[in-house]
Amino acid sequence: MRKLNLLRKIVLPALMLLGLHAGAAPMVSSPDGNLTLTADVRNGKPQYSLQRGSETVIKPSSLGFVLHDGSFCDCFKLVNVTRDSKDETWEQPWGEVDSVRNNYNELALNLEEKKGLHRKLRIVFRVFNDGIGFRYEFPNQKNMDQFRIMDEVTEFAIPCDAKAWSQPTNGTKYYEALYTCDPISCKDTVSTPMTIEMPGNLFMAIHEANLTDYASLNLTPRSQADGTQVLTAALTPWQNGVKVYAKAPCVTPWRTVTVSDTPGGLITSYIALNLNEPCRFDDVSWIEPGRYVGIWWGMHMKDYTWEQGEKHGATTENTRRYIDFASKHGFKGVLVEGWNYGWDNDWTVNGHEFDFLKPYPDYDLKGLQEYALSKGVRLIAHNETGGAAENYENQLEDAFALYNELGINCVKTGYVNPLLDNRELQHSQYGINHYRKVLETAARHKIMVVNHEPAMPSGLRRTYPNMMAGEGMRGQEYNAWSDDGGNPPYHICILPFTRGLAGPMDFTPGIFNFENKAVPGTHPQTTLAKQLAEYIVIYSPLQMAADMIENYENHPALTFIESCPTNWTKTVVPVAEIGKHVTIARKDRDSENWFIGSVTDETPREISLPLDFLDKDASYKMTVYEDGPGADYKTDPYPLNIRQETVTAQSELKIKLAPGGGSAIRLIKI
Ligand code: NOJ
Known about the structure:
By secondary structure, the chain is α+β, with helices and mostly antiparallel strands. It contains 13 helices and 39 strands. 17% of the residues lie in helices and 36% in strands. A hairpin with a 5-residue loop joins β33 (581-588) and β34. α5 (316-329) runs parallel beside α6 (365-374) and α7 runs parallel beside α8 (429-444). Residues 296, 337, 384, 414, 416, 452, 471, 477 line the site of 1-deoxynojirimycin.
């Protein structure tokens, strides 16, 4: 009897966990035991499911492909499983935290087709405390030399019709739609990250990590009679319908599901970085986070032009003015758009006319860079391609060699044309390989990249830390010219939980002058204090002060931007409701100081914030930049109150936010 009990209570559960007893589906749990993944082959079909304790996060979901010669998802036998685990901590050269723990348990299914060509497929699952990643591996084998993926049939079966934040794939260019929050069943195909809130404080985000030589992930929902919402992978195709051209051995990107019991936990999860390969560079000393200004907003406000002419913005004289300003106020970089040949015709369709080496006659490239360096500032070269990828690739080596020789260590790339080379979608395998070529070439020439109209980031910054920031969202520029008045107040309250989960955002905060003569009625739908708070809430290692410099001179709010770091040791998200408000606190990488940003949608709020994340035995001189009396994003964005007091970890702040408002707080350790 005792032996039977021992078997039932100890041995069987242990075997279950290891997935070893006859007929049991292999299982693997997170290191803390909170998440459990089950993976198996049923009737020839590989599938997986995920539990958090007793709750179902993902119901049994199919895995596999359709290849050029037919199904590669319903004909498998499980040959064996292998297991592994890891617990390591690695340092980020820059980031929102200084070190990242990579702690997971791994289970891999080794599969083989039961008949026909007997091709092999391996599916590797990693289970972290805060989510899972899995990918397909095509081992080296006969019969898989040169194959075409026509569809990936990976599914995520969500147990109920939960509400989710996403943007539609179809009809959206450059990932620049507003995120909507609606039940999954109401959605068309969406791009990732997709963020889902399920009952029981269950927040999850689906995305991908290490997108290399493959097509971008989208998800198509399908409702089942029992309410289950099945999201199926929909890869961005080549024009001929093929999704991916491949050759074994090869691997797919990781499919990631971050799981948290708070919205903030999604932001402070780093599983996507852990699923990318370690840094490839021996020397990262040339990679410098920091702040920059630029000849940019002036063009979007139509005060300047990119092209040559009377209002040309990128003149030698104007650029010197920006360099002087940057030097005086501690900005590291000056972005200059419209400095090179190619803008004079309709550049969005004539991208092949861009010359990345030849400055306009009124722009002294060499002299300006020398001047900038003498002032401790560097120019950021703008490379708008108009989507002409081949034209850019043909000039890459020479252009980047020139920039490096001049001392320019950063380029902002742009692709205003959703079809690269008027042919292939930006987020197809063609586009993904182009963006990678640019990144790798830039790295060889010690150049950092800020990518507009980009591939959705997938954590590559771990491997290539010159991948600084990207757009891939409705950025500040919509507050200059969109015909819907600008980004709505809730936009910034959604971005950190959606686009922000993919990687650093070049949103370009910091508009101080809300007048818009070019498009009356369109302007930032925020208060001035919220513009400051965005420097903390929207993470980027390179932060732009986006306004024209004349709007900054002698403005008291500039002192916040001047003091605000862009590189952090710690990040915490003490309070948040997706789409409504979010408060993020970050500790400076180079000091003991903390910065807090708090933003709201159109609803005014008072947020209680215990400062228990501060050092226990220290005092801090706190400076608050908050909405002043009467501040309101609709009627008067300008009132700004700046006040100081001394606080400790025992203090509790009351942060008052106006409609569309924000608060930016600096805490200097005494
Ligand atoms: C769109 C980019 O987002 C913006 O920053 C840039 O100024 C224009 N394209 C022109 O390249």
